[in-house]
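Consider the following assembly input.
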Amino acid sequence: MTQRTSLTLLTSAMLLASSCAMAQLAYVSNEKDDTISVIDLKSQTVTDTIDVGERPRGILFSKDYSKLYICASDSDTVQVMDVATKTIIKELPSGEDPEQFALHPNDRHLYISNEDDALVTIVDTETSEVLAQIDVGVEPEGMAVSPDGKIAVNTSETTNMVHWIDTSTYELVDNTLVDQRPRHVEFSKDSKILWASSEIGGTVSVIDVASRQIFKKLTFEIKGIHPDRVQPVGVRLTDDGKYAFVALGPANHVAVVDAQNYEVIDYILVGRRVWHMDFNQDQTQLLTTNGISGDVSIIDVDKMKAVKSIKVGRYPWGVRVKPE
Amino acid sequence: MINTKNALASALLAASLTFANHSAAQLDIPITYLHQEVDTGPVLSNVLPEPDDAGLQGAALGIKDSNTTGRFLKHHYALNSFSKADTSALVDIAQQRFRAGDRFFVANVPTKTLQALQTALGPEALIFNAGSADDALRQFACASNTLHTLPSRAMLTDALAQWLKAKRLDEVLVITGPNAEDKAYTASFERAAKRFGLKIVAKKDWTFDSDLRRTAQKELPLFTQTDDYDVVFVADERGDFGEYVLYNTWLPRPVIGTQGLTPVAWHRVVEQWGAAQLQSRFDKLAKRWMTPKDYAAWAAVRSVAEAVTRTNSASFSEVKSYIRSDKFQLAGFKGRKLDYRDWNGQLRQPIPLVHPRSLVSQSPQEGFLHPKNELDTLGFDRPEVNCTAQ
């Protein structure tokens, strides 16, 4: 009896597992199509296209990957998609024109930059309550919460600052001036270092979190490409602390940076106007969104080469991988 | 234990906040905006008049953007704006503001008035020309106290000529209006045509101002009957007759210049490179579209603010030398950083080519190369400039 029950349980668990998509899937927001493309990383094909709100840009998963949060910028809302059923189950009060956001490690508090209103809005994803709105610089864009949960940072594109927010008080505690048009921020795993890209300045500032001082400024040089076209946007760091990847926008390359000594070691050619990136589960692959060519490049991290390009919707913006 | 840790962290954060607040005394940066009211006379086509506050609203947005940034640094920007018809009244006001301590001036005035301001304010002021596209101001009549955020006519017509060349529209019929500005616009285009190898097949002057018995629509087919051409260039800065050239030419050809496909410093249809955000901020403030003069005035204010932010100083000499240094860069929503040419003070910038409802292209066109900076294929490059005042 007991044995039979457990066998049944096991069988149903297996059935359940096989009925859920087992493959790794990449979700890509298409800014000008109002859709999310779903790529099966095994077959490297688009297996689904899901209609979402207007002008989807930043996307991210809840910790258990059951929910996908979507900045629907022109709908002035953050949508919550149930990943299993591919339906929008909730809209969060995000403030106007949400562009990028970050989820606190508590898996509940969403920090959203409101590009048109010079605000950061903090929303409780469970109660849909706005916990705070914080005045920041003109055109807030990049958003990140430190892995230890203590600090949230936001970049403002026209004010050219990194704004530091204390997550226990929701207060702005400091500002660090960086180069023109800061787009994206990324914390190191130990929360000690912050990487901030400046699109028009053409640099990435590496900032010591404790002192909030820039200690290294990365510049990029690609043969045959005018320096003004080298416009860093997305930044991703490998978990082993070895590499940082920097998407260089209209330079159509991703820079590979040694994350130990902050030297650029390689440039990888990808599609046109590369903005954001994400790794697959074991970080052997890096996916990039290429806005103008309307595709996603898959980079083989060992070979440091783009090995595949996959056509998605118009102006792909953000990408997030859901593991198996 | 955890509480202690949090308390310590908050104490540290509080300490750093206090430090940030005490590290700088407030800096006040007043900027004077001067506008001269000019009556350009009646026009045949008055469907879309230039707004009276073109320029002023751009300066106002520049101040607003800068104060949002300044809030974090204890920098405060204020706009003192004046509008007068009379040149000497405007010069008087500028001098009063100078005596009151203002050092940065944004001038939306015609060339003659700008020159009067240059003389009256002298070397201890910095004037941003956001009103005159005059080539002479950038080529030989330069002044060391003046920077130009509005593109010159030469930049605009070079932008057009590059596009024509890229499109292989090499043969041009040129129509020029009766005003000095129209003649200057054509002269600029002729320079560009020579530079980029275009052929002007015929030049015609629009002189039908006294004959209103016949309509422009009837005049134009006859007026444009000449040797074959690829494109019609029209110079009519006031917008008097130029709107009627489109679709009324003898040969069915595109119209470019002051009407049709138009090179501009700015237009509502510019949306790439984050421009959509600037457009929507402007729209919220002014409840209308942002014009080239608004953009030029915005860029002027933002230039001052950028230098103040980076130097953390409101000192005239520090701010001025920073703006003119190679460290200066302005994010101007045109896809690349903007800065000033050291040989004539002109703000380097890409030029959008637009028609009223869409962006057609942006110059410099691909393939027009320059040893230093492709943006210097537009307007007067160093060897072409003879600025003794620099």
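Residues 11-21 of chain A have pLDDT under 50 and may be disordered. Ask yourself how this observation constrains the way the partners meet.
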